[in-house]
Amino acid sequence: PNLVARIVSSIKQYTRHDQSQGITHQGQVLFLDLLRSSSGQQTPLVLVVDGVDECSRTSEEVVQSILRLLCQAAVDIPYIRILIATRPEPYIMSALPAQTEDGAILRNLWTDAVEEIDGDIELFIQTEFDQRARRGNFILLEDRPDAVTRLTHLSAGLFIYAHTATRALLNNNYEATDIFDQLVSCEVHASAAEVYGRLGTLYTTILQVAFREFRERADRMEYYRQILVWLAVGRWTFSPTDLAIVGIPPRISQDFMNRLRSVLVIDGEITPAIEIRACHASFPQFLSDSARCTDPAFLVDPPSGHAMIASSLLDLLARDNVDSLRDADGNMPRMWEYAIRCWDVHLCDARYTPKLGRALRGFVETHLENWLQKEAPWDSHYGAALLVELCREVRTWCKKNGPDDGLAAALNTIIDRRVKEIVAEAAQSPDKFADRHRKRIKVWAKRGYTPYREPDEEDEERLEDEEE
After folding, report:
1. Which residues neighbour 16 within 8 Å (Cβ) at sequence distance 6 or greater?
2. pLDDT at position 452, please?
3. Do 185 and 223 fall within a single domain?
4. Element containing residue 80 per DSSP (H, E)
5. What CA–CA distance (Å, rounded) separates 359 from 372?
6. Are 157 and 109 in contact (CB under 8 A)?
7. Is the pLDDT of residue 318 over 70?
8. Alpha helix (H) ranges present in 37-175?
9. Which residue in 131, 264, 335, 449 could disulfide with 245, CB within 3.0 to 4.6 Å?
10. Does 198 fall in a domain?
C-alpha cells in the first residue's frame, strides 16, 4: 500500500511539470528514484514483464531503454527481482545482460521445457477443434484425423503459430484441408528461429487465401493495401470509422477484418467502431519485413507506408471546412486527434514522394501556423517550444529529402515568426512555459533562433554565465 501511494504521488507530481522528456528521464523519475526511496523495504518485490516482443517494432530504441533501466534497477536495488518473458529477438537480447553478469539467469524454454510447452499447445488445439467438431461438419478432422498431433508438431513450441494456424483452420472450414496440407508440406524438424520463420509462411498463406478472389481487382486491393499500411506502421489502432476519415470506405475495412479474423482480435460481430488490432505483434512485423513477406501484394515498405499516412494526415489537417468533421456532440473524430499529434512523426520517417510534398505544402500554406500557435482544433496540447522543435525537424527532413522548391524556406519563415511570438509571450508570462523550455527561450531571445541547429546545453550554460 505504501508503494502504491508513492507511485500515485510521483505521477501526480510529474504530470504537473513538462512531460516531453525522453524515456530515460521518465524512467529515472517515475521508476528508479521511486524504488530507491523505498530502501527500507524488507519484503522482496517481484516485477513481471511479459510480452516484450509484442511492443511495436517502431519503438525498438524505447524498448531497449526500458529493458536496460529494469536491469539496472535489479542491480542497484537489493530487494528487486525482475522476470522478463520474451521471444529472443536480437534487439531485445542485446539490451539484456549476459547470463554471467550481475546474477542474470537466462532460460530458453524452447529447450528447457519442450514437453510442457508441447503439452499446452496440444491441449489448446484439441480443445478448439473439439468445440468446433461438436457443431458438426468440421471437414478438417474428417479429412485429416491426425490434425491435432501434426499441428502440435508443426508448431514446435511456438504458441503464436499454433494459435494463428488453429484460428485460420477454424475460420476457413471449406478450405481448411488445403490450408493444412500447405502447412504440413514443410513439416521438418526446425530450430526456434526456423519455426519463427515458418510463421511467415503461415501469414502468407492466410493473406493469399483471404484476398485471392480480388488479386486482379486493383482498386479493391489498393484499399486492402492501405489498411495493411495503417496496421503495420500506424502508431495507434484504428476502426473502420476512423479510416473512413482518410478515404477508406467502412464496408471495405469491415470486409478486411472478416477475411483476416485469424490474425486479428475480433469477438463477435464486426461493427464500424471495432478497432483493427493484430492478435500478436509478429503479424505487423511480418508485413514490414521484406525478407519474410515475399508477396509484393502484401509487403509494407515502412518509408513508403509512412509517406502514405503522412500525406493522408496532412490533407486532413489542411482542410478549411474542419467543422464538418464534428459529430452530433461537436467532437472532432479520433483520426483528427491522431493527425495533430503524429503527422510530423510519420513525415520524418517517410520517403519523399511528390504527393507527400504537395500535401506538406498544402498544410504549410493553410494551417501549420494554427498548429504551432495551439489554436483549436489544431491544438495538440504539446508545449509551444516543443512544437517549434518538431517543426524544425520537419524543415530538416524537407531540406534533406525534398526538391529545392522554396518549401524549406517557407518553413524557416514560419518558424522564425513563431519564435519571436514565443519570446514575447515568455517575457510577459514566463510561468506559461516549463522550466526546460524557458531556458531554451532565453537562448532564442539572446541569440536568435537558427533552424539549422537546435540550441544545446552549452548554449544555455553560456547564457547563464553571461547573465551572472
Report:
1. none
2. 40
3. no
4. strand 80-85
5. 17
6. yes
7. yes
8. 60-76, 90-93, 109-112, 114-133, 139-143, 147-155, 159-171
9. 335
10. no
